[in-house]
Amino acid sequence: MSNNLLNKIQFVLSLLVLFGCQKESVKRDELKQFTLLTPEETGIMFENTLTEGLNTNILMYEYFYNGGGVAIGDLNGDGLDDLYFTGNMVENRLYLNKGDFKFEDITQQAGVATRAAPWKTGTAMADVNGDGLLDIYVCFSGSLPPDKRKNQLFINQGNNEKNIPQFKEMAAEYGIDSETTSTQASFFDFDNDGDLDLFLLNHNPKSIPVLDESSTLALLNETDPAGPQLYRNDGETFTEITQEAGILKVALSYGLGAGIADINNDGWQDIYISNDYTAPDYLYLNNGDGTFTNRINEMLDHTSHFSMGNDIADVNNDGLMDIFTLDMLPEDNKRQKLLMAPDNYEKFEFGLKMGFHHQYMRNMLHLNHGNGSFSETGQMSGVSNTDWSWAALLADFDNDGLKDLFITNGYARDYTNQDFLKYMADYLKNNKNGLRRDNILDLVHQMPSSDLNNYIYKNTNGWIFEEKIKDWGLEQKVNSNGAAYADLDNDGDLDLVTNNVNHVASIYRNNTDSLSPNNNFLKIQLQGSGLNHFGIGAKIKCYAGGELQQIEQMPIRGYQSSVSPVLHLGLGKHSTIDSLEVLWSGGKVERRYKIKSNQTIVFSQAEAVDAVRNQEETKPLLSEIPSPIAYKPFKKSINDFKRQPLLVNPLSFSGPVLTKADVNGDGLEDIFIGGEAGQAAALWLQNKAGAFSKKNTPAFEVDKDYQDTNASWADFNGDGSLDLYVASGGYGEFMPKDKRLQDRVYFNDGKGNLTRSIHSLPEMLISTGAIAVHDVNKDGFPDIFIGARVIPGRYPETPGSLLLINDGKGGFLDKTAEWFPELSNLGLITDAQWADLDLDGIAELIVIGEWLPISVYKIEGQKLQNVSQAFFAEELSGWWNSLHISDLNADGRPDLVVGNLGLNSQVKVSPEQPAEMHYKDFDNNGAVDPILSFYIQGKSYPYLTRDELLHQMAGMRTRFTDYETFAEAGLENIFSKEDIASAAHLKANHLETSLFINGKEGMKYVPLPLETQISPVFAIKSLDINQDDYQDLILTGNIHQARLRFGKYDANHGLVLLGDGQGNFNYLPQIKSGLNVKGDVRSILQIEDQLLFGINQGTLKTYKLPKSE
After folding, report:
1. DSSP states along 768-788
2. How far from 552 is each of 186, 259, 370, 462, CA to CA, in Å?
3. How far apart are CA 303 and CA 922, in angstroms?
4. Is the pLDDT of residue 565 over 50?
5. What average pLDDT does the structure give for the chain?
6. Among candidate residues 755, 761, 757, 712, the one with its CA nearest the CA of residue 741
7. Of these four, 167, 538, 696, 780, which has the most CB atoms within 10 Å of its CB?
8. Confidence band (pLDDT; 50, 70, 90) for 613?
């Protein structure tokens, strides 16, 4: 062979090897987290086919498209998990896992073919009779005769000679062949007696209108089979104990999800019920005595409205069980506007009156604080908008040690499409005979249909999620309902199974073992003693590398479904577990140490000998004590959105104002509490014992119709006594030039007797948002900057702010035009302070506001000049609420903490994609039309529905004759170029509550802990809480009377951030800080070792600081 030929052959071979490597590389690059397997690959042909007919359609049965479930478990003991699907109108199917994702239909051989009649819903695998074999329970529903709705229980009889499990239907023998319209069955040991009881989630097949108080109360007080049922396992049979257990069983029940977990860590399993429609969700805490108590109103601040499926798991690995609920809010702008009805405040208030809680249409993630309260973070966590969602599964799908989130999604027909609802209303109106059998399908076929993709999110840090639909291979367009996970091929990662409407079931193979081979795992099999063979209710705590993970054994999850009872832990890079605890129901615990990863380990309750150790409770830093002041809150029923429906946030709820001073010269701090309109302010004098008594102040009673929005003490008239300046403001019940908007000055006689000085101030009928006292002209007398908040009824038109110069006798002159002409157009001011930022001995004025950047003004001669650019490198415009100035890094320079809206909202902004406000009287009717816009999926859209637009501007009806046209409209499609160009324009590009560390080069933005952003911040306090000589922070806020589409902001229960002295802060969990301050906190006041929190329309809450060592 010649050298040339040899060289050619070697060259060709090298190319082939190269191409082969490239091909293999391409294959690996194309591999995603999940691979959708075909029916031909798996042998699974099941399809939940729905056939629309005269009696079988969405108009005859509203839950027609709610779909079926899937149950997973090893039925024949071969170490492989098998699959059971329920079909609403088709036969259920059982598939035996043969390994390597090959399945065999054994429905007939196993004897699990249900009655041929519809309507099958949920299914569960559980060892009902405690023999160590998984049984199958099937729920029935539908508008059918009771005998056709009897649930079925297939008891596992063991395998035949072909290793196929054999079943016998025995629901009647066990007393659980319920005829109710059932969604799902949850088997768990609610009384810790060693056997499995049954919670049966039911739903009313008919929509009951909630009309008035009396009819609603009647529904809530009358037992009805539509309500849930609790059955106690009595050995040979089950006994229903629903009502004696304290569980409400009424017609107003539309149960779509039941989550079972030990939510409060007391060793007893609790129940969370997700209810559709207006019916409230329930959080039943297990009392440990055979009864439950609904605690949802006190533990959760708000809930989903159309609650669907749910899941309960320790999302952020803090050892506490968190609650995730699903709803129907779409992600994209078009579907939001096509499917959402306008805000209905009357209906909402009626629901509150009936005890139905604050319900909002979006998914909710409730993070457990461990102190009986939760904070809802779904919007900030990135998981609030997933359209018409059903199953939620929290599990570690990439084995990194954090629980990810899978959500099934879709509805065969858009039943709530606003154009269809309008069409149906017109149809019924124009057809005198109404809805008849022969025309009902015509209406059904008018409903739009859409296939949607499911959602999957990667957990990035414990409670912030990143959408991974495309990256992880879940782009399939399909309407999925029930879902479950299991390691179907025993390769150490969790595969996914979904039950789909009118589409073959989906089997997703997880490729973590190939994509992330260094991510380790552990599988855990539990062998419970007694009749609870699979250890239902057991709690597993895993410690690896100083990190905690906790999971509970509760296979019933995933909407009408159940997952494999083999527990799964992703371990990330940890190859060894330091210790693992199994806390069994009943109080025993088993511990093992130094466990190798990537294996299946078995725990047996019979080997658990240790009792659960009572963990020593960590004493929190702050402890609540009775308030030293008997302050009675003033309740207001004002709805600002009745006056201006398109407000961004309410404007009437700024109090109470708290401020302190020694007003009577006795060396003790006294407290002023501002009043609301209709409530007089009050002055509370402190005595030497630390107690407070209310001082009679007639001037306050005379001025009780004013709304106090701010206050400051200073010697305004130079007599040596501290006088009081009180700012007047308000919105909802005030006219633009209301006489009650006049600020007030009260002179002090030195003994705490205050008298209003009528002639001290010029007429200034503005709604004041901020005051800042400083000797501007250096004459020895305090002058005052007045920041105007809003023109009542004309938001967001700019009110005129003022600069008042003291004449030396306590009289003030308006010198705005001379000193600060731009004050008349400064903006919507929320707070202001004076501070010497550049250490030149002259204080600057720092001003914040809504739709404004943080602005700094310097005194130069007898002028105030804007020097913001000298301190801030970029213009950060926000919806700023509060300003706190303190030296937080001990360098002698004042730093800024500025409260903002936060990130737990539908509104997302950036410098490139700001929120915008265009406003003018677009329709020339004398009213301001404020149009809020922000970006959704890369494009800016007005944030209002078609109905809201037509209510605001009736003339738009001819332009947008249907919802479809409006749903795709941008601002430029609604208004002409001329209208947009002539409208006033505001923008906000930064909504984070922010820390700015003051240095020689100006203000440096330092991110605060993520928890800071879970709710708007209105009150801030800096102090050394933990006595380490470093300044810490307390941040509070919230907005309860919010616009319904946004929902109330309430996740801040009093945040404590511990400082390191360098300007860095760490969040201290609520259970350690001790704070649990709910409500709209508007002020924080420290009196000695006590912190007083002023809550709008609430009592004062008081906490005691730790004692000095």
Report:
1. EEEEEEE-TTSSSS-EEEEEE
2. 14, 12, 16, 17
3. 37
4. yes
5. 94
6. 761
7. 538
8. low
The dihedral over CA atoms of 659, 660, 661, 667, expressed in degrees to the nearest 10, equals 180
What does the DSSP assignment read for 979-1000?
Answer: HHHHSEEEEE---S-EEEEEET
**SS3 label, residue 747:** strand
- Non-local (6+) Cβ contacts of 211 within 8 A are none
Q: 877-879 and 1081-1087: which strand pairing?
A: unpaired
Strand 723-728 and strand 708-714: the pairing is antiparallel
Per-residue tokens: 417: 């499409």
Question: Within 10 A of 416 (CB to CB), how many other CB atoms are there?
Answer: 16
The H or E element that residue 107 is part of is helix 107-110
pLDDT score, position 29? 54
CB 199 within 8 A of CB 186: yes
Question: Which has more pLDDT, 945 or 25?
Answer: 945
Strand segments (E) across 38-149: 70-73, 82-85, 93-99, 102-105, 120-126, 135-140
- The answer to whether 186 and 173 are in contact (CB under 8 A) is no
Question: With pLDDT > 70 as the criterion, what percentage of the chain qualifies?
Answer: 96
* Cβ count near 918 (within 10 Å): 23
- Give the number of other Cβ atoms within 10 Å of residue 863's Cβ: 12
Give the up-direction half-sphere exposure of residue 114: CA atoms within 13 A in the CB hemisphere.
32
Angle in degrees, CA 412, 138, 72, rounded to 5: 80
- Can you tell me which residue has the tokens 């060709």? 12
Mean pLDDT, residues 677-686:
97
pLDDT reading at 3 higher than 50? no
Instruction: Specify the 3-state DSSP secondary structure of 341.
Output: coil
Tokens of 170: 């025995």
- First and final C-alpha spacing in the chain: 93
pTM > 0.85: yes or no = yes
* Calculated CA dihedral for residues 299, 301, 305, 308, nearest 10 degrees: -40
Residue 8: per-residue pLDDT: 37
> 1016 to each of 95, 382, 421, 491, 1091, how far by Cα in Å?
51, 17, 36, 46, 20
Angle at 788 between CA 782 and CA 794, to 5 degrees: 165
Amino acid at 648: V
- Compute how many other C-beta atoms are within 10 angstroms of the C-beta atom of residue 208: 19
- Spatial contact of 842 and 813, defined as CB atoms under 8 Å apart: no
- C-alpha dihedral (136, 141, 142, 147), degrees to nearest 10: 90
* CA 112 to each of CA 170, 507, 811: distance values in angstroms, whole numbers, following the listed order: 11, 22, 90
Q: Which of 352, 365, 282, 297 is nearest to 326 (CA)?
A: 365
Q: How is residue 762 written in tokens?
A: 């010029």
Residue type, 1020: I
Continuous H helices in 783-877:
816-819, 868-871
Kindly provide the residue ranges of all beta strands, DSSP E only, lying in 326-363, ordered along the sequence: 359-360
Q: What is the predicted pLDDT for the residue at 12? A: 37
Element (H or E) spanning 293, and its range? strand 292-294
Query: What type of residue sits at position 707?
Result: Q
User: How far apart, in whole angstroms, are the C-alpha atoms of residue 159 and residue 178?
Assistant: 28
- 1000: amino acid identity, one letter: K
State which H helix or E strand residue 855 sits in.
strand 855-860
Q: Specify the amino acid at residue 331.
A: E
In sequence order, the β-bridge partners of residue 802 are 786
1063-1081 mean pLDDT: 97
Torsional sign, CA 830, 831, 837, 840: positive
Distance CA 379, CA 364 (A): 8
Length of the chain: 1109
Mean pLDDT along residues 812-821: 94
DSSP string, 535-556: -TT-EEEEEETTEEEEEE---B
| Distance (Å, whole) CA 903 – CA 464 | 11
Both tokens of 658, joined, read 């708290």
Residue type, 918: H
- Distance of alpha carbon 122 from the chain centroid: 27
